[in-house]
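Hey,
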Amino acid sequence: MERERTTERLEPDVAGEPTYALRDDRARARARTAASGENGTFSLDGEAAAPRLEPGALVIGRYRLGERLGAGGFGVVWLALDERLDREVALKSVPREGLGAWARTEREARAAARLGHPGIVALYELGSDAERAYLVSEYVPGWTLAELIEGGAISDRDVARVGEAMCDALAHAHGRGVVHRDVKPQNIMVVAEPAAGAGFAKLADFGASRLASEDVLTQTGDVVGTLAYMAPEQAAGLEVSGEADLYALAITLYEALVGWNPVRGQGLADTARRVGTPLPTLGRTRPELPAGLTRAVDRALDPDPAWRGTLDDLREGLARPVNTLSGKGGLEEPATIARFGLARRPRRGWVERLGAAGASDPSRDHRAARRPPLEGRGADDPYAEGLSRSRGLGRLAARLAAGAGAATLAVLALELLLPGRPPVEAAAAGAGVGVAVALLPRIGWLVAAGCIVAWLGLGDLERQGAAVMAAAAASCVPVLLPRAGALWSAPAVAVALGWIALGPASCALAGLARGTLRRAGLAAGAFLWVALAEVASGERLVFGAPEGTGSPARIAASASAAVRDGLVPLLTTPALLPALAWVAFAVVLPLAVRGRSLGQDLLLGAVWAAGLVLAHRAMGEYLAEWGLATDPRGALGGALLGALTAVVAAPVLRRMASE
């Protein structure tokens, strides 16, 4: 009954996971101390049974209790005065009931005490008396990241800075064999002075999470942590490592950048069902953010810990663009300082202001629903114009390149498929196609492809079969690359490389694209176009045409022959099977050649090339039964060229993605 009289149950911070706080000081319990854990895994029944602590009491002969800050998931938190050192500390009292063996508790606390980093809330002392154990830690005046997100008081630049600090803190902990296992916004404190350096943000509750989870640590299959931030392997009760903290930090940053947690559902069961499922990528949810940043966060959210990268990778993705990110609505805004009691940051010098001149406000549309209006926020972003101009030029360049590629492809198609036609007609048609694709990449490309197919198929040109082959080639590209209209002409490069015995290099070119699905689509489209070109021309570009393919002249002249003697042999034999190998090697290339170390890139690029050659030869031996070449044309040269291209391009693309 005592517990019912002194505490109340709040809305859960994660569906199905309650927290507790005092009626008289709820706000302080949520935001004013880093020592109040809130994962709802500990019951306060033992605290109610023990003699009550009161303000003014002296605990373990040293700490004079002041105001009661609140009750977290692990016990009651007090602001106390260390009478020996005359400093304020956060003191958490935890009932000894349910803690298990004291020796194990002491070992856990000592593990946290070994950590000494400006980005980690320091644990000063572990003590006990007959009723309770006490954790004494650094008192951090400030606010939790959860409070700042909820209050709309943190900008994209602030999030990146917090992420950098957390990466450093976790790297320090992991280097000493400590895994946090409960990284979340409620356990990240942002200090009251935004000008703070390495201690700008602090990670809390290392020792508390260990201390209150003794039973979890000793029973296989039990789980500790907060479900909405939990890595899949952690939720499954498997042994966790630093990769689980990396995943939780990425979820936390995702939430801070978009305003909602992609795992949290309507209830505990709904949240549990979402753990480990593919999440909407940050790159798609916030496409205006720097690509390097979104890729780093999305990679860290991979369900498989082996593919998440490292804390260094995430930190680099956050650090590179930090000065170009928007600071609007964040910790340095006068309205935020007034509302949250933060200290003003000294005015930046002209060099820093110049470095930030290209920033925009990418948070405005995505987090407005979660942010209350802030006084003093202007309608215009002072940094938006520069970055908008830069990105506009980038989009213009991409469209011009797409138009030029489509124009070239149209001219070549008309010249090769309509011999004897005046060149001026092909050139005029190509110019029209280029303009259309540059203005409307997808619509223009589809209209141009439809016109060429219609031109070939209608009239007395005796090219109805060529129209069928062209239609087959054109129709597969939008399916494989539905959102990348500027790249729809790219598979033609594979055909060109095939003519000069370098076709497999297309795998590397596809591997340079951004996004797994885009790389896979480009690689598959490239091989399909090569296979169709081999059937239409009768030439062997890589593996050649399968057995049963008709002559090029017959296929070009008749639509029925094109289907019967051209497409059917491709679809009824394993002739398209090598496309899977191209897709696989394109997808894994960025994982091997990353642009961070030339020596490593050369070594792994050589391994990638060797694997591609071996895969082609294995495919050739298998496909020989259907009349395809046992020695694929250009396998060695194409693989080496592809690997070299990737090694040269990777550092450039990495630098561009982070700007």
